[in-house]
Write a structure and sequence with these properties.
This protein is mainly beta and about 180 residues long. It has helices at about 45-55, 60-65, 135-145; strands at about 1-15, 15-25, 40, 70-75, 90-95, 100-105, 110-120, 155, 160-170, 170-180. An eight-stranded mixed β-sheet has the order 3-8-9-10-7-6-5-4, covered by helices on one side. Strands 1-2 form a two-stranded antiparallel ribbon. Strand 1 and strand 2 (about 15-25) form a beta hairpin.
């Protein structure tokens, strides 16, 4: 079911009248988180991409902060990933233009490891052979899957790591790699 609502409003500015047409779109085809189709990989596990990602970014949080202009940074103490107690590590989320990194940072050494990464710009070449803007066929061949063209996003499932792929017109537009499942 799709429903479109159109509205026309008048607007006056310096004794001139303008008409503004607003459109609101409601569609039951929108997917919410967790409702993405899941496809099991047959060639390479998405966790291999986590390994490539870990090698692509620096190990120290201070060096990671210098890979680009940071739009926002949040730091949260979290006992779920820390070996003994929450005082040993933090979860840092760094948002750059076209890249968001969620990192596990050891407080004592400031060493960081990737928990998750979201990529939406071709500027960032940190997923190895997987890139924003490339054709879907490249991912299909790499992971050994068939990705439906009429549904986006799609989850590729491996042993423990999902890779969520957004695509449009046969090209990858956004990727989210959740590496924390295997930690």
């Amino acid at each position: 079911m799709k429903m479109y609502i159109f509205g026309i409003n008048s607007l006056s500015f310096k004794n001139k009248h303008f008409f503004v047409i607003s459109v609101t779109l409601f569609a039951s085809t929108f997917l919410i988180a967790g409702d993405f189709p899941n496809i099991s990989t047959t060639a390479i596990d998405p966790f291999e991409t986590c390994t490539v990602l870990d090698k692509s970014i620096p190990r120290q949080i201070s060096s990671i902060r210098h890979i680009g202009h940071i739009f926002s940074e949040t730091v949260v103490s979290d006992a779920d990933y820390c070996e003994v107690q929450a005082q040993e590590c933090d979860i840092s989320t760094l948002q750059f233009s076209g890249l968001t990194l969620e990192l596990l940072v050891k407080k004592e050494t400031q060493e960081a490891s990737v928990l998750a990464a979201t990529l939406s710009s071709p500027r960032w070449n940190i997923f190895g052979k997987i890139k924003i803007g490339q054709r879907i066929e490249v991912l299909e061949k790499y992971y050994g899957v068939s990705i439906p063209r009429d549904v986006s996003p799609v989850n590729l499932e491996g042993e423990c790591t999902p890779l969520t792929i957004w695509h449009s017109h046969g090209r990858v537009t956004k990727l989210h790699l959740d590496c924390q499942a295997c930690i």
